[in-house]
Design goal:
Structural class of chain A: mainly beta
Oligomer: heterodimer
Order of helices and strands of chain B: EEEEEEEEEEE
Strand content of chain A: over 45%
Largest interface: A-B, 21 and 21 residues
Structural class of chain B: mainly beta
Largest sheet of chain A: 7 strands, mixed
Number of strands of chain B: 11
Strand content of chain B: over 45%
Largest sheet of chain B: 7 strands, mixed
Number of helices of chain A: 0
Number of helices of chain B: 0
Order of helices and strands of chain A: EEEEEEEEEEE
Radius of gyration of chain B: 13 Å
Radius of gyration of chain A: 13 Å
Number of strands of chain A: 11
């Protein structure tokens, strides 16, 4: 099973600050890594597919990078509405797995 | 607009059964794989099961293998999850999520249905 480890687990950030969340896979997964945002009492929303591909309707301040085992989600100029938990997810091999989540709080 | 609406959740005793349904609309259901993903209270996301567009490929997490059965009815645009021998650790919100044509990651998710296993 491929284990995805996100860091940090929690981040408290002021508006307009840049946020960087990393996701490390226990073995190479190529670019089969996707990022989701989940706000309280809502279902997950897709932010980035295949490590770096943008999604229609997602603000351009969200971007992704990486391949192999190391991946990054970047939020440029954080806004109050970005308070949420962020998950990475791999679709390279069964069982599909998720990172443990990174909670982003607005100071 | 893609819509996924789950139903069938509720309170069930350990060892009991429940059948979840997911009604899909706004896309050609028969062209996409589908997934069930769950989230225990206050916890992260856990993949449960996937089914390919024509039901040719079906996969389960080890934690539910032999107890849960995924199925779909493309004529009714519906996805199902039959859950048997339920345990307390199956308590979670269950999400129906759309996969891709030839991959299983999810782009759209339903609002979820809560399953509580308790005596």
């Amino acid at each position: 099973e491929i284990v995805l480890t996100q860091s940090p687990d929690f981040q408290s950030v002021t508006p307009k600050e840049k946020v960087t969340i990393t996701c490390r896979a226990s073995q190479s997964i190529g670019s089969s890594l996707h990022w989701y945002q989940q706000k309280p009492d809502q279902s997950p929303k897709l932010l980035i597919k295949y490590a770096s591909q943008s999604i229609s309707g997602v603000p351009s301040r969200f971007s992704g990078s990486g391949s192999g085992t190391d991946f990054t989600l970047t939020i440029n100029s954080l806004e109050a509405e970005d308070a949420a938990t962020y998950y990475c997810h791999q679709s390279s091999s069964l069982p599909w797995t998720f990172g443990q989540g990174t909670k982003v709080e607005i100071k | 607009e893609v819509q996924l609406v789950e139903s069938g959740g509720g309170l069930v005793k350990p060892g009991g059964s429940l059948r979840l349904s997911c009604a899909a609309s706004g896309f050609t259901f028969s062209s996409y794989s589908m997934n069930w993903v769950r989230q225990a209270p206050g916890k992260g996301l856990e993949w449960v099961s996937s089914i390919s567009s024509s039901s040719s490929y079906i996969y389960y997490a080890d934690s539910v293998k032999g107890r849960f059965t995924i199925s779909r009815d493309n004529a009714k645009n519906s996805l199902y999850l039959q859950m048997n021998s339920l345990r307390a650790e199956d308590t979670a919100v269950y999400y129906c999520a759309r996969g891709q044509h030839y991959d299983f990651w999810s782009d759209y998710w339903g609002q979820g249905t809560l399953v509580t296993v308790s005596s």
